Amino acid sequence: MSYQRDELQQVEPDRLAVGQGSRANPYVFLVGTPRSGTTMLKRMINAHPLIAITRETHWIPDHFEKQNGVDAQGRITAGIVDALYGYHRFEQLKLDRERLEEMIAHKPHMTYAALVTLIFDLYGLRKHKPLVGDKTPCYVSKLPLLHALWPQAKFIHLIRDGRDVCLSMLNWRMAHKDVGRFSTWERDPIVTTALWWKALVGIGRQQGLALGSNQYLEVTYDSLVEKSEAECRRFAQFLNVDYHDSMHNYYLGRTQSAENMSANAAWLPPTPGMRNWRTEMFPEDVAKFEAAAGNLLEDLGFDLSPQGITAEIKENVAGIRAQFRIEALARKWRLPEIW
User: Fold this and answer.
1) Following DSSP, what letter does each residue of 189-218 receive, concatenated?
2) Of 56, 100, 257, 323, which sits most exposed with the smallest number of CB within 10 A?
């Protein structure tokens, strides 16, 4: 059923973090490769009167996997609050530490999954919304873990043409903290970005499709920009909430204009052509990207350029792929079959 606006109400603290039922938080995870447009997606979903989307967290899988304040059975330990508040992104939730500590004290043997549910519920109370989701693009490689912790959670995977992602990545000041961490980046950032995009999109699709259509939804960036109202209606249906025009009109009253301001900072409406590999990418770079990731581009329905790929480019891609694979597996990425 769809959730109505009049269902929005304050939840009593002793009812928080039950971790059960279809309405349990985290309610939805918005994922995709960085530079894919996930900020626009977040703003659309967050504009719904019943749904709040947190800022990027990054800490959710890490604390569990590294047992940082979590024991081997998945239950929290005495150090969990210090671990959470010691990470700068957690403080962005603006939750009262003393209140959180008090609530944890009344729930001995709490699981990590229940704690995160509690944290999201508290964030929802602060935002006056009952349903709370997360937008952290890199969680695209963590779907099985997130599903295991919160079996009811839904996932929306935003997929953008990898060549446009590449153009954006090459001009991103934070690239060195993401794909730039691979040693092959210095050798060839185009091929490295192609392999990185192919790996993450492929991982997300393979793991997400296994969850089924009730919990996993794919959307392309082009469709989100060109058919934004229709896609917002599809999101509402997928999330079991009534559609609101506020989703499609998320930018109204917020748009700014200033020299050199990014599209995100300017709160622009969905705008086609922000990146266009056909006109902005050198033909040789297109050939290198397609040599590394052309099969996934085709599977996703993206057109390939008509130019051929030389033997030299193929040899270069093969060498970089071998090293990239070693480093990806060291990160415990489960490379998809298409990779």
Assistant:
1) HHHHHHHHHHHHHHHHHHHHHTT-TTTEEE
2) 257
